[in-house]
Write a structure and sequence with these properties.
Belongs to the sel-1 family. By secondary structure, the chain is mainly alpha-helical. It has 19 helices and six strands. Helix 9 crosses helix 19, helix 10 crosses helix 11 and helix 16 runs parallel beside helix 18.
Length: 433
């Protein structure tokens, strides 16, 4: 017959219940001195001695559980999120007996005041919709309240932020109008701050039209003295690329390969053809010809302003700059310095360097030295020499710091180095233009 298995209880840990180990009856166990031949008493005595001699082993789960328990005791209890969620789900008066004992142990470490505050903050009575959980609470807090009536934002009540300052929210137009007098001062202040942030953070890179399409390098200032404008394709070609092409026997347009016009009439025909197709660059160029009376056109500043306006609406940054100049000096339009500043501001935020420099000059004339330095610092770092001279003069007058002048000088030098090329240096040496 096969040996029978007898269940023997082993107490492994004082904190854990006894577990059973199956021992085959009649088989020897490690440390067992007896066998089947020693009568019943000797057999039982030997089996008891053998069980007593077994090492007190613990399972991996028991060890990991005890290690986690010791780690929590060293920290003073369970994690904060666990305590909060546990107390919200089960208040003290509804907790099981074991949970109540653990809460008492934690209160002795963390303090009754701490637990009371968190119990109030996370109890279901504090938040009516406790089933929403943490995500629902955060969502309700993010909706905000109406600044006028105090209504809480929800799925049914949609709050809209003040479009000028983004500081407050309203549930409707009536509340916004009622709160306007109290909010007006703070709104204007914050709106001005946001406007300045956009003004000084944008327009640090020159627009695409300032780059030669052949060598892809930015054209140095003043651009008219270092490039050629082609009426066939409305592209600026730098002197270096133009001279290098002529050395190789290429006398047509380098970009579109069109033959250059022989007279002003042909040039005007090319420009008007592009204007008819709503090309903003062509409209701006034709406006310049009307402004100066070139290509056989009669000088007409009003017509030039109309072409600038249409070109600006189609996205021409240069047209915005010219409109600002026309408004500032009253050429073809009514003289309006505020309107000129608006045009230059739009152009500067799109990377127009001369508009940025003009804004600096206006701020300096108005006594806003700090704002003037910030404008000229941006344009100087983009390669504008006159802006660098302005900062140098302000530094000598004590209106700019040495660090600001050093930053402007280094930025200007780095930009100038990026605009250099062998062909451009050769064209400048030979006086080519």
């Amino acid at each position: 017959m096969p040996p029978m298995r007898t269940e023997v209880a082993l107490q492994v840990d004082d904190e854990r219940p006894a577990r059973s180990v199956a021992v085959p009856q009649g088989q020897a166990v490690v440390g067992n001195a007896g066998g089947e031949g020693g009568k019943g008493g000797r057999k039982e005595d030997g089996r008891a001695k053998a069980l007593a001699a077994l090492p007190r082993q613990r399972s991996l789960r028991s060890v990991s559980t005890q290690t986690s328990r010791e780690r929590r005791k060293a920290k003073g209890g369970t994690s904060a999120l666990g305590r909060r969620l546990g107390e919200a789900a089960c208040p003290n008066d509804q907790k099981p007996e074991g949970s109540a004992r653990r809460a008492e142990a934690r209160s002795s470490v963390t303090g009754e005041a701490f637990l009371a505050d968190h119990r109030r903050a996370w109890s279901p009575s504090t938040h009516q919709d406790s089933s929403a959980g943490i995500g629902g609470i955060c969502k309700r807090q993010g909706d905000g309240v109406c600044a006028n009536c105090g209504k809480q934002g929800s799925d049914t009540i949609k709050l809209k932020s003040c479009t000028a300052c983004r500081l407050v929210k309203y549930c409707g137009v009536d509340c916004q109008r009622a709160h306007h007098k109290r909010h007006k001062k703070a709104c204007k202040k914050r709106a001005a701050e946001l406007k300045d942030e956009r003004l000084y953070s944008q327009g640090h890179e020159r627009p695409e039209g300032d780059f030669c399409p052949i060598c892809t390098l930015p054209i140095p200032f003043p651009m008219k003295s270092h490039s050629r404008f082609n009426a066939c394709c409305m592209k600026l070609i730098c002197d270096g690329c133009d001279m290098a092409a002529q050395k190789r026997g290429m006398f047509d347009c380098l970009f579109c390969r069109t033959r250059y016009p022989d007279n002003d009439a042909d040039s005007l025909t090319m420009i008007q053809t592009r204007v008819a197709k709503k090309d903003p660059a062509a409209m701006f160029f034709l406006g310049q010809k009307y402004f100066n009376g070139d290509l056989g056109l009669q000088k007409d500043m009003q017509k030039a302003a109309e072409l600038y306006t249409e070109a600006a609406e189609l996205g021409s940054v240069n047209a915005l700059f010219s409109l600002g100049c026309a408004s500032f000096f009253g050429d073809g339009v009514g003289q309006d310095e505020k309107k000129a500043v608006q045009f230059w501001t739009k152009a500067a935020m799109q990377g127009h360097v001369e508009s940025r420099r003009n804004l600096g000059c206006i701020e300096g004339q108005n006594g806003n030295r700090e704002r003037a330095v910030r404008h000229c610092l941006i344009s100087a770092k983009m390669g504008h020499e006159d802006s660098l001279e302005n900062i140098k003069q302000m530094f000598m007058d004590g209106e700019a710091t040495k660090e600001q002048y050093v930053v402007a000088l280094r930025g200007y030098q780095n930009t100038v180095e990026e605009m250099k090329s062998h062909d451009r240096d050769e064209a400048m040496r030979l006086g080519y233009h």
